[in-house]
Automatic annotation (TrEMBL):
InterPro entries: 6-hairpin_glycosidase_sf, 6hp_glycosidase-like_sf, Glyco_hydro_8. It comes from the Bacteria. Pfam families: Glyco_hydro_8 (PF01270). This is cellulase.
Amino acid sequence: MMRLLKLLCAASFAVAAVCQPAQARGPGISPEAWGAYKAKFLDASGRIVDDGNGNISHSEGQGYGLLLAYLANNPADFEQIWYFTRTELLLRDDGLAAWRWDPAVTPHVTDSNNASDGDLLIAYALALAGSAWNKTDYMEAAAKMAQALLSHVVISSNGHTLLLPGVSGFNSPDRKDGPVINPSYWVYEAIPVMALLAPSNAWQKLSDDGLQLLQAMQFGPRKLPADWVSLNRMPEPAAGFDAEFGYNSLRIPLYLVRAGVSDKALLSRLRKGMTAEEGTPATIDLSSGKPKALLSDPGYRIVNDVVACVTEGTKLPESSQHFEPSLYYPSTLHLLGLAFVGEKHPECL
C-alpha cells in the first residue's frame, strides 16, 4: 500500500502533499494554536466536542480533528482521535461511519446513517498521516473508507457524478425530489487522494461536476447555492429544508481555495453574495437575499479573508491572524484557513 501510494503521488502534482514528510511541508498549525483548540474541544476519550450543538460528536468533527492534528504534526493526538472514531463510529457494515454520537443518551449513536463529508475527511486525514508518518494501518483504513464511499455514495444521475450526503434518505425512492445533495460536502482537496486510494475515473468527474454545479447554482438575488439542493430536474433548493445559504455552505469557498481552485469569478461571486456588511459573512435567505444571521466570529470572517487573499492579494486582518477558540465550528474553519494561508500564501500574513 505505501509503495503504491508513493508511486502514484510521484506522478500527480495535485496530491504531492500526501507524500511530503512533516518537515518538508509548510508551517501547518502551531503547537500553541493546536493546544488551545484541543484544550477546548478534544475530550480525553478522543472525541471532538461540538459545543455549539449540545456537546455531541459527529463524523465531521472527528474528520476535522484528525486533519488538524495532522496539520499540527501531533501523532499522539491523531491516534487518540482515531481511536474514538474507529471504536465508536465505525460501526456500520459498509465501512462508513455513523454520523452522530450523543454523550447524554445510551446507546450513544443516535443516528447510524453516515455523513459523506465526515467520511471523506476521515479517509483524507488518515491518508495524509499514514504517508507522512509511515503508518500502514492508517493507509489501509483510508483505502477501505475510500472504496466504501465510491461504492455507496458516489453515484451517477442525469449525466452527473454526485456525492450523496448519506447512504439513506437522499436519493429516490427515499425522496420524490431525489437526488438531493449538499454542495458543501464536496471536500475538493480530498478527492484526488480518494482516487489514489480507490482508483476510478468517477473521482475526477465528481470534482468536475461539483464545480460545474456550483457554477449553475445561483439562487436568488445574491446568486448563491443552497445548503440542500434537489437535482431531480433542474437544480433548486430542496423541499423540507430552509432555502438558505447557511452554516454548511459557508465553508465552500474555503474548500475551494484549499484545493487550489483559482476561479476568480466563482470565488468572488460567493464572497460577495455571502457578505452582509463590512466584510462580515452571514447566512442568507435565498429568496429575498436578506441576511438571516451575521457571523462576526473571526473563524467565520476568515473565509472571506482567505478568498480576498487568493483573489486580490489582500493581507489577513489582525483579527483573523490571531487564533483564540470560540465555538467548535468557527474555530475549526479558523485553523484550516490559517494553515492554508501560512503554507500557500504567507505574503498575506
